[in-house]
Design goal:
Elements (H helix, E strand, L loop, with lengths): L26 H21 L5 H23 L4 H30 L8 H9 L3 H9 L16 H26 L4 H33 L5 H17 L6 H21 L2 H4 L6 H13 L8 H5 L2 H8 L1 H19 L6 H26 L7 H39 L33 H4 L3 E2 L9 E4 L5 E7 L1 H4 L2 H11 L1 E8 L10 E2 L2 E2 L1 H17 L3 E5 L20 H10 L3 E5 L9 H5 L30 E4 L2 H4 L8 E2 L2 E2 L9 H22 L1
Parallel strand pairs: 1-4, 3-4, 3-7, 7-8, 8-9
Antiparallel strand pairs: 2-4, 5-6, 10-11
Helix pairs in contact: 1-2, 1-9, 1-13, 1-14, 1-15, 2-6, 2-8, 2-11, 3-4, 3-14, 3-15, 3-16, 4-16, 5-6, 5-7, 6-7, 7-8, 9-11, 14-15, 19-24
Length: 686
């Protein structure tokens, strides 16, 4: 069986230790960062969820960087090149070492199914666009069950990198405007940052409600957290914590620390952030910072300023960067979904050791970018570039190797008899499976790449037309992803028969007006989409609608062994009959319940086969059903399954590209048999 995928939700990173430009070093902040990174790591390792510590890191970045920029702007002006050179010299070395080690570990220790994205993930990590790469993946229904990338934790560095490009310009513009007006820059900055906070938070709330997976990685939905940190830096002197009663500061510090620790336990951070719920950890961190150094033996700051915590805070950047790939490799090698108590402790210990080893080296490199002169800028930029080039070179070499492998496969496939797929006879040469496991995830219908399949969040009816411009027949493919995976076979038939093929598909949404759920919630977007589909079909009036006639699960979470004709299916088919539209209802394909390519990466096809009754009824629920006369039923189960097993590889072709969706390559080999049975069934129906 395949290793269990890591599913712990999105992750984020702290920044290295920085001095606050407006008030000197705050020792309790190192301790706060240590608590945040330990929460992040512990929740990932043992609980498989997100803690809320990521938002603390973003807030502290805004706090520290705003203070530093304000000081520079009011004293000597912000030198943009020097600022970026210092940051690059401080941030890039550790990130580059971790990225290079992660590339090597992926090649040596992770299954082939994790290789395809690794070079691109490494480049995105170091060029600061991982968050957008993940955002694009997060809206893809078919990508939701994919393996977690060992580079995923670089997303927050990307958000921070984009913040670093924007914030100096914002601060400099506010200071310039204040001076032009003869005003104190600080109130103007407070107004500017307040505007960013309000606008970004409002956007974050709206986007989180509309499309939470996208919002999680959206820089615009995160800017308010940086702005809140910046306002804290500007307003902290006004708050004058030294004048606040000691008992109040002690209470404030412990309240903030307790709220931070409890956040991940009480909220499902990965599914409700970054909207207003993210105010919980950020305001908790604000409370700790405002409480400051209480001077009381009972204060939270006494804990936060303990030497071990301060040390962990000083290496928190490297510790965060190391813990995620170490965890991913551990889980893949041990084939676990969560770490054991001992295994998790080992993951943290190895991560701390690696962080302790790399931080001093990175600190020495960072010194090259210090100073305000041109030489410091050149040295810092050169040091960062010297660290980047080996990683970019390794990623380019790996991508080149993958391209060469594709060319080799093109030659192998020139002989069609070697990879017959569904058309396989009794004797098929024993050859490596195609597509190779490393490319399995690419073997989805072209409609996904074309943007023709609606996402789970969308409601608009997207129609894409393929095939003949002057068709003898128009067929509409309608339904969810298990309807969508028939597209490659239908396209082959449409091209051969001079048909037009119209694609109308939405992820996880069945073609019925019966209530549906998705991820445990009412699937209202599906209901609205279905209403729109019927309106579209009334106008389009295709000759035939091709759709699934049974399903094993309504929303991807109901489990297997429940094959059924879904409520509302027959009524919908009868409604189409009233419009003069024929229906082809195909029996659902068997589900494996585990990632098939992942299983094949470590086991043989025999070990990865499943019994038909694991997902299919003994007799098709369509048999003997009183169906409208416009309905033709197709059942191709015997192509996928024998009497005892459903096979993951047929005719040297990989059947599934994930746990339940048929690959485009295999579907194309199925086209002749689908065409034959379709014509025969319609002939019998008269």
């Amino acid at each position: 069986m395949s290793p269990t995928a890591v599913r712990t939700g999105p992750v984020s990173a702290p920044t290295p230790r920085t001095t606050v430009g407006t008030g000197g070093h705050r020792p309790e902040i190192d301790g706060l960062r240590a608590v945040a990174v330990l929460l992040v790591a512990a929740y990932h390792v043992w609980l498989g969820r997100v803690s809320g510590g990521v938002d603390v890191f973003l807030l502290l970045t805004g706090f520290l960087i705003t203070g530093s920029l304000v000081r520079a702007a009011t004293e000597e002006g912000i030198r943009y090149g020097a600022f970026l050179a210092r940051l690059a010299a401080r941030l890039v070395p550790t990130a580059a070492v971790v990225a290079l080690a992660t590339l090597a570990a992926t090649w040596l220790l992770l299954p082939e199914t994790r290789w395809r994205e690794a070079p691109g993930d490494a480049v995105a990590a170091l060029l600061h666009h991982t968050n957008w790469r993940l955002a694009l993946g997060s809206v893809d229904y078919l990508a939701r069950d994919g393996d977690t990338s060992p580079f995923q934790h670089f997303w927050s560095l990307s958000v921070q990198g984009q913040f670093y490009l924007l914030w100096p310009a914002l601060v400099a513009a506010a200071v310039w405007a204040a001076r032009r007006a003869g005003r104190d820059p600080r109130p103007v900055l407070v107004g500017a940052l307040s505007g960013v906070l309000v606008l970004s938070l409002a956007y974050s709330v709206l986007m989180t409600r509309a499309d939470q997976p996208w919002a999680y990685f959206d820089t615009g939905a995160r800017l308010w957290e940086f702005a809140l940190g910046g306002l804290l830096a500007l307003l902290l002197p006004v708050l004058r914590p030294a004048r606040v009663a000691r008992v109040a500061r002690v209470a404030l510090g412990w309240t903030g620390l307790a709220a931070l620790v409890l956040c991940g336990a009480l909220l499902q951070v990965s599914s409700v952030f970054p909207g207003y719920a993210a105010l919980w950890p950020t305001l908790a961190a604000v409370a700790v910072v405002v409480a400051g150094t209480s001077g009381s033996a009972l204060g939270a700051d006494r804990l936060l300023t303990l030497r071990p915590l301060r040390y962990l805070g000083s290496i928190s950047y490297a510790l965060y960067l190391w813990h995620w790939p170490v965890l991913v490799v551990y889980l893949a090698v041990t084939e676990r979904g969560l770490a054991t108590p001992v295994g998790g402790a080992a993951v943290l210990a190895v991560s701390v050791l690696l962080a302790a080893a790399t931080t001093p080296v990175a600190d020495r490199v960072a010194r090259l970018g210090r100073g305000g002169g041109r030489r410091a800028v050149v040295r810092g930029a050169a040091a960062a570039l010297a660290c980047l080039l080996p990683v970019l070179g390794a990623a380019a070499a790996w991508s080149g190797q993958q391209a060469a492998e594709r060319a080799r496969w093109a030659d192998l496939l020139a002989d069609g008899s070697s990879y017959p797929g569904a058309a396989a006879g009794d004797r098929v040469p024993d050859l490596p499976v195609y597509p190779p496991l490393v490319w399995a995830a690419e073997d989805a219908p072209v409609t996904y790449a074309d943007g023709c399949n609606q996402t789970t969040a969308g409601t608009e009816v997207i129609t894409c037309v393929y095939g003949s411009r002057d068709p003898v027949r128009t067929v509409a493919l309608v339904g969810g992803s298990h309807a969508a995976h028939w597209f490659p076979a239908l396209e082959e038939i449409a091209d051969a028969r001079d048909w037009r093929l119209v694609n109308i598909v939405k992820g996880a949404c069945l073609f019925t007006d019966a209530p549906q759920t998705y991820l445990g919630e009412p699937y209202t977007a599906c209901a609205e989409w279905n209403r729109g589909v019927m309106a579209e079909l009334r106008e389009l009036r295709p000759d035939t609608v091709f759709t699934t006639g049974t399903t094993t699960s309504l929303d991807g979470s109901a489990g297997f062994g429940e094959e059924q004709v879904v409520d509302g299916y027959v009524d919908r088919w009868r409604e189409l009959g009233d419009l003069g539209i024929d229906v082809v209802a195909v029996r659902d394909t068997p589900r494996f319940g585990f990632d098939v390519p992942g299983c094949l990466a470590s086991s043989g096809p025999e070990e990865c086969a499943v019994e038909p009754e694991g997902s299919l009824a003994a007799v098709s629920p369509l048999d003997g059903l009183d169906l409208p006369p416009n309905v033709t039923v197709l059942d191709l189960t015997d192509v996928f399954c024998g009497p005892d097993v459903c096979r993951p590889v047929i005719g040297n072709v990989l059947v599934y590209w994930d746990a339940s969706h048929i690959g485009a390559t295999f579907m194309r080999t199925l086209a002749p048999e689908l065409d034959r049975r379709w014509a025969s069934a319609e002939g019998r129906r008269g």
